[in-house]
Amino acid sequence: MLDERKKRVLQAIVEEYIQTAEPVSSNAIMNCEGLECSSATIRNEMAELEKMGYLEKPHTSAGRVPSAKGYRYYVDELLQEDKITLEEIKYISEKLENKVNQIEEITQIASSTISEITHYTTVAIGPSTNEQIIENIKFVLLNSRMMMAVILTDTGLVKETIIKFDEDITENQVQTLSYMFNNKLKGQPITKIDKPLEKYLVDEMSYSVNLIKPIIEQMKKVVEEESIHLEGATKLLELPEFNSLEVAKNFVNILDEKELMADMLNTGFAQDINVYIGEENEKEELKDFSIVTFKHRIGNKDLGTIGIIGPKRMDYAKVISVMKYISKKLNGNDNNKSE
Amino acid sequence: MLDERKKRVLQAIVEEYIQTAEPVSSNAIMNCEGLECSSATIRNEMAELEKMGYLEKPHTSAGRVPSAKGYRYYVDELLQEDKITLEEIKYISEKLENKVNQIEEITQIASSTISEITHYTTVAIGPSTNEQIIENIKFVLLNSRMMMAVILTDTGLVKETIIKFDEDITENQVQTLSYMFNNKLKGQPITKIDKPLEKYLVDEMSYSVNLIKPIIEQMKKVVEEESIHLEGATKLLELPEFNSLEVAKNFVNILDEKELMADMLNTGFAQDINVYIGEENEKEELKDFSIVTFKHRIGNKDLGTIGIIGPKRMDYAKVISVMKYISKKLNGNDNNKSE
DNA sequence: TTTAGCACTCATATATGTTGATTGCTAATT
DNA sequence: AATTAGCAATCAACATATATGAGTGCTAAA
């Protein structure tokens, strides 16, 4: 357990470092609130905090920098969560309330709003489709060789795809297909669109392979697609820690790897808001970054995940308060009178 | 007009510089084909070429670098276009023939193929929708307050969007709407989906505003959306000229600006393949890059534009031959026996 | 327990020297 | 008249030395 003054020192250092990105010296925080003592005293405290693992020194004659443990302590114990302004609350409300009709888009809008306010990069991923239940399937004949399939799920998600055939099809065929597919799939999880179904329809129901195969394949493909959405990809490049070309390149490459992003968003959801600081990230590539994520859900329905990715010295107070607010708004339990 | 040896020298310098990204010295090209003379002679030629504006010197004791004028001369007069290998031809054919069914996707596939082969960044933009003619409109009732609209155009383009209503709608309403819209819009340019139409339907045909307004607005929106597709965005970052953080950041920021990209692809199409070298680009931001574009069209139907963006010292020979080949393949006049 | 004082450390900045690639010119050669 | 060898001059790039100063850690006094 840290005594009161050590907490103060740690907090001051974390906050100063978040702001300046420069190692913090004993002088720099001497005049901070609640620290009315000399730099020498602070140096002593700093030395102890370092021994306990909360701080690090880049080199002997530099100031101190928070360690992962330091950030963690700060986030868990010291953070003050009221760093969201009234203007921001207003802005968020506007953005979200305007467009509540597009269920797929809402996560993206939330994600871009977060990026705008925090100036970090955000990643949004749609709901993991394979947990969803098919509510309805529509087939629409477009022309003699093209059909559109529309899949509706219980979460309100809509996936649509165009299917092309090598032979002509008729409105009648589409009708019976539509009936058949709905009959087999309504109320079933979306993963039931698979090879066995194709086999069943061809072998047992004696539909033509040329007809069924493209339908199943295309629907399967579109259903499995994960839609990842990046916002503010270049924002981090403005930060001083990205002044090394090495790091900047690295970051851009990370963002390019969609799978990594998806993984990142899909790990562990113990709390409503999850914070991973530097080395706490499972992926090696992310160990220089901090990540804050939350799931957008209504009831127990997963509607997507939003993550923010920033430097280890990200402004946790702001990020977390913004995330909490948006999460509350999205997930419906908003009893906040913002206007 | 340049004499034969000057041409040789210019060509050697351009090609060497494209390969190495280092200023080219008189020694370096002494043993090039058709240049059996001493470095001193080459130096004399180089000095003259510089005076004429084809070459530049970064500083006194460095080699020469081609100027924009130099590249231009090279592209117009000296370039040999057979820099596409058999493997590449095979690869392209495979990629393109595999997926000729998705009309929207084809431009993107072509674009990603080009990026893979050339190792530059490519940008693809869909056909400019507002020239297209509506062939058919389908409305599909999804549930009591959601409808999907599908628009088919003469180029085979399909746009679809979900429309939500504030009041319940019936299958019957959708039927008459569908009839009405098709009646008014079939054979019309896509730009006819506009405010006057809304006004007409509401005022003259006495449809409910609550019904018509969301339909028109949403369809208008989806039709106007420009779909820009980037491929290999990080590839250029590997090139030595992007070793300056300044340039790298600048590049990433450029790619982020969708409008700029769209503009870039939509300027001037005098030739089938257009080459803009450095300062020749209208946009200030692009003056350190070269851009090669071509339009994907069948007959006089515009199906999209593909552009490649690379350093001024891009491998024009390769890029142009790949682009020409793909353009030929896409645009149908392929009388090349590749297999 | 706190703090003033001071020697020590070390990244950063600046100046200075060295190297080597490359040019441009001149004079000799073809 | 055109080509080429030879050589001084140039200058970025690298390496090395020197100075600066911000910041610490320790000691001893308050």
Report the biggest beta sheet of chain A as strand number plus sense, adding barrel if it closes: 5 strands, antiparallel
Q: What fraction strand of chain A? A: 15-25%
Average of the residue pLDDT scores of chain A: 89
How many domains is the backbone of chain A divided into?
A: 3
The CATH C-level name of the largest domain in chain A is Alpha Beta
First CA to last CA of chain A: what distance? 42 Å
CATH architecture of the largest domain in chain A: 2-Layer Sandwich
Low-confidence stretches of chain A: 334-339
How much helicity do the residues of chain A have? 40-55%
Q: Can you tell me the overall shape of chain A?
A: elongated
Oligomeric state:
homodimer
Strand order of the largest sheet of chain A: 7-3-10-9-8
Biggest interface goes to: A-B, 26 and 26 residues
What's the CATH topology name of the largest domain in chain A? Beta-Lactamase
For the secondary structure, the number of strands of chain A is: 10
Number of helices of chain A: 11
Order of helices and strands of chain A: HHEEHHHEEEEHHHEHHEEEH
CATH homolog superfamily of the largest domain in chain A: GAF domain
Gyration radius of chain A, in Å: 26 Å
Structural class computed from helices and strand pairing of chain A: alpha+beta
